[in-house]
Amino acid sequence: MYIVQVASECAPVIKAGGLGDVVYGLSRELEEQGHCVELILPKYDCMRYDQIWGLHDAYRDLWVPWHGASVHCSVFCGWVHGRLCFFIEPHNEDGWFFRGRYYGCDDDPMRFAFFSKAALEFLQQSNKRPDVIHCHDWQTGLLPVMLYEIYQYHGMGTQRVLYTIHNFKHQGFGGPEILWATGLNRPEYYFSYEKLRDNFNPFSLNFMKGGILYSNHINTVSPHHAWEAHHGECGFGLGHTLHVVQDRFSGILNGIDYGVWNPESDRLIPYQFGPETWSDKVLNKKALREKLGLAQGNKPLVAFIGRLDEQKGMHLVHHGMYYALNRGAQFVLLGTATGAKINDWFWHEKNHLHSNPDCHLELSFNEELAHLIYAAADLILVPSNFEPCGLTQMIGLKYGTVPVVRGVGGLVNTVFDWDYDTSHPLAERNGFIFYQQDNYALESAMNRALDVFYDNPDLFQQLSLQGMAYDYSWTNPAKEYVSLYDKIRHR
Q: Do 299 and 387 form a contact (C-beta atoms < 8 A)?
C-alpha cells in the first residue's frame, strides 16, 4: 500500500511534542511491515538539518494557487533516519516557515492552510497518487476539505484520507480570508453549521471540524480518549461533530520506539538491564543520585518527566512532590514550563528545596537525563488533567518503573491497577490509578504504591517485572492503522 503522511512535525528533524514521535514511529513501522510511506512536511528554517541525509531539490517550480494568483515553492527531498521526506518551501514575502519557530505566530492558520494546499498541489502536479493520505492535527484539517471540494475534480478522485487528532484542545481557527486564499471561496456555504463553522463562534471557521467532517475516517490516539472526546469534555466543543461521524471515528493507541526506549540496549544509561538482570536497575539509581547530588540509601525514588503545563496536572505534581518527601521517598522532576506562571512557581520550589538531599528539580529538557531517570526511578507520576495517549507511562513500564497515573485517556488503556483492576488477573497488573483531581485521590494511590515498596519488596519487584513484560511498541498499532487504511480504500 502507498501511504503519504502529511504533518507539521516528524521527529527528530521537526519535534515540538509527541506528534513528531508518532509520525516518525508509525511511518517506520509501516515500512517495516512492507508498505511504501512518504512524508510531506514544511521546510522550517529552524528544523534539525543535521538529521536529514541527502537533502536535494526534488521539484523546483511548484506553483500553488493562492489568493487568485500563485505562490512559487520549491520542494526538497531527503531521508530522515531512513524515512523519505519532502519539504515544502514557499518563496513569498511573508516567510511563512522562516520564523525561527514551528508554531506560535499570529498567522498560523494562514501558514498551515497554505501548507495543506501546497501538499495537495505537489501530489497532483508530481502525479503521486497514494492509496491513503494520512493527515495529523489541526494544521492539516483543511486538506481533506480541499481534496473533496477541489482536487477530486482534478485527477485525485480516488484518494482517501485518514485524519488523526492528537490533541483536541488546539483546533485552528480562521475567517473568510482563509476561504478566499485557498480557493474554496463561497463563505455562505462553508460558514454553515453543517460545514466548517465553529460550533460556538458563528464568525469563525474551525480547521479541525473540517478535517473531521470531510475525512473518510477519523481517529484519536487511544480508545478511551476517543470515548472521552465523544461523550465528555475532552472534545473541547467538538463532541456533537464527533457524534455526527461516530460510525467513522475510533481510537488507536500510540506506540513507543523500542529502538530508543529499551533498557537492554539504551546507550544513554550507565547500566543496561532487562527482566533477567532486573537487579542492575538499582545501579542506575545510584548513578542518578551521584549525578544529581542526592543522598544514597534504600529510599524509593519517585519521578515526574514531562512538560510543566496545566494539561499535566501541575497542582498534583506539586503535591505529589511534597507527599513523597513526607513519606520518606526521594523526588526528581525533569521538565520545562510552557507558561511564565508555572515556570516561576517551580523555580520558586527549586530554590526552596535546593539544599534538600532527597529532591532535585531539573527545569530544562535533557534527553540523556530523561533516560537515566526512567532507568533509576521506582515510581513515575503521571497525574494529567487529560492525556490523549501518554508516552511517559509506557516508557516507564519498559524500564521497570511503576506508574502512578490518573485514570484518563490512554493512561486507562495502558496501566492496570494492582489492587482494583477487575479486567486483568494479578499477574498482568502493572501500576496504580486514581481518578479524582484532588490531593486525597493522589495520596491514596501514592500511599498504596509506597506501602508495597516499603512492606513487600519482592512484590514490588514482581509488579515492576510485570510492567516490563508489556509490549507497547508500534507493531500492533501499525497493524490497526493498516486495517483502517484498507477499510477506507474500499469504502
A: no
Find how far residue 59's CA is from the centre of its chain.
30
- Tell me the three cell numbers of residue 269: 544509561
Q: Which three cell numbers stand for residue 203?
A: 464568525
Cell of 235: 472534545
CB 52 within 8 A of CB 86: no
Residue listed under C-alpha cell 520542494:
75
Residue 121 near residue 65, CB atoms below 8 Å: yes
Q: Is the pTM of this model over 0.85?
A: yes
- In order, the DSSP letters of 415-473 are --BTTT-SSS-GGG--BEEE-SSSHHHHHHHHHHHHHHHHH-HHHHHHHHHHHHT---S
Residues 269/282, Cβ–Cβ less than 8 Å: no
Report the pLDDT value the prediction gives residue 491, as an integer from 0 to 100. 73
Cα 396 from Cα 398, distance rounded (Å)? 5
Longest dimension (CA), the chain: 73
Instruction: Please give the CATH architecture assigned to the domain spanning 2-255+475-489.
Output: 3-Layer(aba) Sandwich (3.40)
Residue 392: enclosing H or E segment and its boundaries?
helix 392-398
Provide CB contacts within 8 A for 478, sequence distance 6+.
Answer: 26, 29, 30, 33, 255
Domain with CATH 3.40.50.2000 in the chain: 2-255+475-489, 275-468
Distance CA 371, CA 396 (A): 10
CA 41 to chain centre: 17
What is the C-alpha to C-alpha distance for residues 74 and 86, in angstroms, rounded to an integer? 10
Q: What is the pLDDT of residue 16?
A: 86
DSSP H stretches of helix in 187-308: 187-190, 207-214, 223-231, 239-244, 281-292
Nearest CA to 179 out of 142, 233, 154, 208 is that of: 142
Q: If residue 298 lies in a helix (H) or strand (E), which one and from where to where?
A: none
DSSP letter string over 357-410? TTEEEE-S--HHHHHHHHHH-SEEEE--S--SS-SHHHHHHHTTPEEEEES-HH
Q: What is the CATH number of domain 275-468?
A: 3.40.50.2000
Residues in the chain: 491
pLDDT category at 108 given cuts 50, 70, 90 is very high
| Average per-residue pLDDT for the chain | 96
Q: What does the alpha-carbon distance between residue 92 and residue 43 come to, in Å, rounded to a whole number? A: 13
DSSP reduced 3-state for 265: coil
Bridge partner list, 205: 174, 197
CA pair distance 414, 423, nearest whole angstrom: 12
- C-alpha 325/C-alpha 18 separation (Å) is 30
Q: What is the pLDDT of residue 117?
A: 98
